[in-house]
Design a protein that fits this description.
- This protein is an all-alpha fold.
- The protein contains two helices and no strands.
- The protein has helices spanning 25-32, 34-47.
């Protein structure tokens, strides 16, 4: 069965990360958008390179390399 979210996905832009039941990396990245995601990764690398603040919607310091 196809996900009910698959059909409208091409028309959706962003989302509310706070309301996600599960913080799946691809969904968090999609909710942020690519430009904002890259900025968040840059900030994480600078301020939290060890990934200490990894709760909730985590932006890992190596997130852009994992894709």
């Amino acid at each position: 069965m196809r996900s009910p979210w698959a059909a409208p996905r091409p028309f959706a832009a962003g989302g509310y990360v706070t309301f996600m039941a599960e913080f799946e990396p691809d969904r968090v990245r999609a909710a942020c958008g690519e430009e904002k995601w890259r900025e968040l990764v840059r900030i994480t690398r600078r301020h939290d390179p060890g990934g200490v603040s990894h709760h909730n919607a985590n932006i890992p310091p190596d997130a852009d390399q994992a894709r």
